[in-house]
Specification:
alpha+beta; globular; Deoxyribonuclease I, Chain A; six-stranded mixed beta sheet; 257 residues; 19% helix
């Protein structure tokens, strides 16, 4: 759908799996640097600062594989830290799996506009996966859904059906995150069909970041919303690459009420 500039609002959206701030650059690093998933390391904050600089131009950022403040992150809530470093006034962290003081697995939301509603839901299946839904405006406003789906196809199908029910009544919807499956997969096609969504990003791969061959990170949008400048960003600061779009929203759609 095309809009005239005078008839649209523009929001810059980004989705990024940050792998708790670990800058994995080779497959062998999963083995040789695996200890970083359970123990703190001084380079983690430096990498988070690089991520903060990269996300600063955006209006809304959805994060996956964030730590909410445990031993491995030096007890730093990474969503809060990135919000402060990138100067986002509003942020929300959803912790989906707590492993004592060792790890706090989370999704994160950073935004420059204040949401009128934020809710969180655990996804069905093994513990550790969740979805954040935030709304801007009233019932006819914009809804944004941030999630990280399971590794197994069976688990993803179950989760997609659950999310489809959550967003069934949304007319202006964005769903983004690490889906762990390709755009042509049964899971993504089911989600797009059930929620009346379409792909918005380019065909470039997002994983692994050093040789991106698989497109498993996605931003899906309703037909009522326009998209420009869909891209995969060449910032290999995690084992995933971030994806971004400029979302074009009809001017009459109230994002404040």
């Amino acid at each position: 759908m095309r809009y005239q500039k005078s008839d649209q609002q523009r929001l810059r959206l980004l989705s990024y799996n940050i792998q708790t701030g670990i800058d994995t650059q080779r497959f062998r690093h999963y083995l040789t640097q695996g200890w970083k998933h359970v123990l703190p390391h001084r380079d983690r904050l430096l990498n988070l600062d690089r991520i903060a600089a990269m996300i600063r131009p955006f209006d809304l950022v959805g994060l996956q594989e964030v730590d909410a403040g445990s031993l491995r992150s030096g007890f730093v809530d990474q969503t809060k830290y990135l919000a402060q470093q990138a100067q986002f006034p509003h942020w929300f962290a959803q912790t989906n799996r707590r492993i004592g003081k060792l790890a706090q697995h989370s999704n994160g939301l950073l935004c420059r506009r204040k949401p009128t509603m934020v809710e969180e839901h655990p996804l069905p299946g093994l513990p550790g996966r969740g979805v954040i839904i935030c709304r801007f405006g009233g019932d006819e406003g914009l809804a944004v859904c941030i999630m990280h789906l399971a590794l197994s196809r069976r688990g993803r199908l179950r989760q997609v059906r659950f999310v489809s029910e959550l967003v069934a009544d949304e007319r202006n919807l964005v769903v983004m995150g690490d889906m762990n499956c390709a755009g042509e997969s049964e899971e993504l096609r089911l989600l797009m069909r059930n929620a009346n969504l379409r792909q918005s990003c380019c065909d470039s791969g997002t994983f692994p970041s050093w040789r991106p061959q698989r497109r498993i990170d996605h931003i899906l949008v309703s037909a009522s919303l326009g998209v420009e400048n869909a891209r995969v960003l060449d910032y290999p600061l995690s084992d995933h690459l971030p994806i971004g779009i400029d979302l074009l929203i009809p001017k009459e759609l109230d994002l404040v009420a």
